[in-house]
Design brief:
The protein has helices at 35-38, 46-67, 87-104, 113-119, 164-174, 181-189, 214-226, 239-242, 247-278, 294-306, 316-319, 324-335; strands at 3-8, 14-20, 25-32, 75-83, 107-112, 132-137, 142-149, 152-158, 283-287, 310-312, 343-344. It contains twelve helices and eleven strands. The protein is globular, with a radius of gyration of 21 Å. The chain starts with a strand and ends in a 10-residue tail after the last strand. It is an alpha/beta fold and 354 residues long. The strands form two sheets. Strands 3-2-1-4-5-11 form a six-stranded mixed beta sheet, sandwiched between helices. It has a five-stranded mixed beta sheet with strand order 8-7-6-9-10, with helices on both faces. 42% of the residues lie in helices and 19% in strands. The structure holds 5'-O-[(R)-(carboxyoxy)(hydroxy)phosphoryl]adenosine and zinc ion (ZN). Residues 11, 138-140, 165-166, 168-169, 180-183, 186, 288-290, 292-293, 320-321 line the site of 5'-O-[(R)-(carboxyoxy)(hydroxy)phosphoryl]adenosine. 5'-O-[(R)-(carboxyoxy)(hydroxy)phosphoryl]adenosine binds next to helix 5 and helix 6.
Length: 354
């Protein structure tokens, strides 16, 4: 049996991934995004996300089974994100996976979504070796972790409030942009070539490696109001609609976006410099949705090149939520004959440990 079939529904995207155990590579990574359903709310609405998965998952699988040459008999087992995430979304994905596994006579394993993000830089960077430092920066999490080996992780620090991706989304909403805000803030920030506005970075003088983004968000809100951005009762706009705004407003929004993005990068960079003082880091990675931000990765790349550190990050499709990383994570356990170490969901009556 050659393939692992994986599902991720931890947040709003319905994701399917297939790993080829023979070729040792991802062969399919399909997503039905719900971004349009949440766009006007400025963030993910959990109930809408759950119902979206109910509609999208069967569609994703019907289309897949109708078009693929992969035979059901060739599927070795099923892997599914079982924690952490939105409870309704996880329940729908894991119930779907268990139902599918039962009907196909396959085993089903639960994968920790964060572990999958942490290991995602390995998917297409074959030269990356463990141990490596990983900044997992997504819509739900921000953490600095040393990945020692598969299943062995050392948490150095994590956010005490908001996640970095969440801060990008909230800042975008303040500026009047739809969800997901990260990619729009990055594109709008790129338009600004002038001075940057100062924003506070939490814990920069502290000796620990935690993060905090709520103060940055509040300071950003205050600054935006000072700059004449009216944040109340606004209809949220798309990136394209940004160009319909008056030129002076476009400039202010670009400057605010660039200033926030710079502070976001600095929050990671200053944390990284503290870690370098204490730990010898040869291999450094960044993963999760925010890792698709080119300003952040280019700046880290520059610093790492100058300092003899190997820097890696996943392809964009493996940064944001995806099924490929779930399949890949379970493949690593399977190749080490260690599937017994991960959550076994074969028993249909077993409740999930969210
Ligand atoms: O990893 P992910 O898809 O979902 C979670 O596990 O949370 O991350 C989604 C987050 C969103 O907050 C989104 O705004 C952010 O990643 N994001 C970005 C960019 N692309 C996505 N943030 C900054 N710059 C980007 N280009
Ligand atoms: Zn994620």
């Amino acid at each position: 049996m050659r393939y692992i079939l994986a599902i991720d529904t931890s947040c709003d995207d319905s994701c399917l991934g297939i790993y080829d155990l023979k070729k040792r590579q991802i062969v399919i990574n399909k997503i039905i995004s719900q971004a349009a359903m949440h766009a006007s709310f400025g963030g993910v609405v959990p109930e809408v996300a759950s119902r979206g998965h109910l509609k999208n998952l069967p569609k994703l699988f019907n289309e897949f089974f109708q078009s693929t040459k992969i035979k059901i008999e060739e599927i070795a087992f099923i892997a599914v994100s079982c924690r952490p995430g939105l409870i309704g979304s996880l329940l729908i994905g894991s119930s779907f996976a268990k139902g599918l596994a039962w009907s196909l006579g396959k085993k089903v394993y639960g994968i920790d979504h964060l572990e999958a993000h942490l290991l995602s830089p390995l998917i297409d960077n074959r030269e990356l070796k463990m141990p490596y430092l990983c900044y997992l920066v997504s819509g739900g999490h921000s953490m600095a972790v040393i990945v020692k080996e598969v299943g062995d992780y050392h948490l150095l620090g994590k956010t005490q409030d908001d996640a970095l991706g969440e801060a990008f989304d909230k800042v975008a909403k303040i500026l009047g942009f739809q969800y997901p805000g990260g990619p729009i803030v990055e594109k709008v920030a790129k338009k600004w070539k002038g001075d940057l506005l100062e924003l506070p970075i939490a814990y920069k003088d502290k000796s620990h490696y935690n993060f905090s983004y709520s103060g940055l968000k509040t300071a950003f809100k205050r600054l935006s109001i000072e700059k004449g951005i009216n944040i109340e009762n606004k209809v949220l706009i798309t990136y394209e609609q940004f160009f319909h705004l008056p030129k002076n407003k476009q400039a202010i929004i670009s400057q605010l976006s660039a200033s926030f993005q710079n502070a976001a990068y600095n929050s990671l960079f200053l944390n990284f410099k503290k870690i370098l003082k204490k730990y010898s880091i040869k291999n450094f990675t960044i993963a999760g949705g925010v890792a698709s931000n080119k300003f952040i990765t280019l700046n880290f790349q520059k610093f790492c090149n100058q300092n003899g550190i190997n820097f890696y990050f996943p392809k964009i499709e493996y940064c944001t939520d995806n099924g490929a990383m779930i399949a890949f994570n379970s493949a690593l356990y399977s190749q080490q004959n260690n599937l017994k170490k991960i959550e076994n969901l074969h028993n249909l009556s077993r409740s999930l440990l969210f």
